[in-house]
Design a protein that fits this description.
This protein is an alpha+beta fold. It has helices at residues 90-102, 155-164, 170-186; strands at 11-21, 26-34, 39-46, 50-57, 60-68, 73-77, 80-82, 104-116, 122-123, 125-136, 149-154. It has two domains: 11-46, no CATH class; 50-186, Nucleoside Triphosphate Pyrophosphohydrolase. Strands 4, 5, 6, 7, 8, 10 and 11 form a seven-stranded mixed β-sheet that branches. Strands 1-2-3-9 form a four-stranded mixed β-sheet, with no helix packed on it. It is globular, with a radius of gyration of 19 Å.
Length: 188
């Protein structure tokens, strides 16, 4: 993990209050003081850690297609998600999400790294895992995932969909980029 800098914080929290809570997220509003002396308000969405999984077997990758309410359309993306529980082991979470959404079991899970999801307004970490040695098991979707469709594509088809805008999920795009860097370093 990269080292944190020792620079002073440029924004300090003056006060904080919870605005909304449900089982999946919390919304808080903070009164802040910037280093230039100006006060402001910052809204923060807090969510538990999540995982995104790259299930790759040879030249095939598995994706999820589901309706995403916030954009009002079906979307293709890598399997991903979180549990509403703090402190879950990231690999256990990744294995659980892979099974829930795809019905796949991975003989090997390689952690490629961690990314913050939209940290301009959200406090949520996402762990990126490469799943290999895949075998089929039983799917175990959450009730919200009733319309989930599992699809596999060749890597070439997948990359074409990234480039032509068929796949627009930023987490999928970022995870693929990290995977490509990791893969390149494995061959050096």
């Amino acid at each position: 993990m990269p080292e944190e800098t020792n620079r002073p914080r440029s924004i300090e929290t003056v006060s904080s209050r919870e605005i909304y809570r449900n089982p999946w997220m919390r919304l808080r509003e903070d009164v802040i003081l910037r280093s230039n002396g100006q006060r402001g308000i910052y809204g923060v969405v807090e969510k538990e850690d999540c995982a995104i999984i790259l299930p790759i077997d040879g030249d095939r990758i598995w994706l999820i297609e589901q309706f995403r309410y916030t954009i009002g359309e079906r979307a293709l993306e890598l399997p991903q998600g979180g549990w509403e529980t703090a402190g879950v082991d990231p690999e256990e979470l990744a294995r659980g999400e892979l099974k829930e959404e795809t019905g796949l079991h991975a003989a090997s899970m390689t952690c490629l790294g961690m990314q913050w999801i939209a940290y301009g307004f959200t406090h949520q970490r996402q762990f990126i895992y490469l799943a290999s040695g895949l075998s089929e098991t039983e799917k175990d979707p959450d009730p919200e995932e009733h319309d989930l469709v599992v699809r596999s594509f060749s890597i070439a088809e997948f990359e074409a969909m990234l480039l032509d805008g068929t796949i627009r999920d930023s987490c999928t795009l970022a995870a693929w980029g990290l995977y490509l860097v990791w893969k390149q370093r494995q061959s050096e």
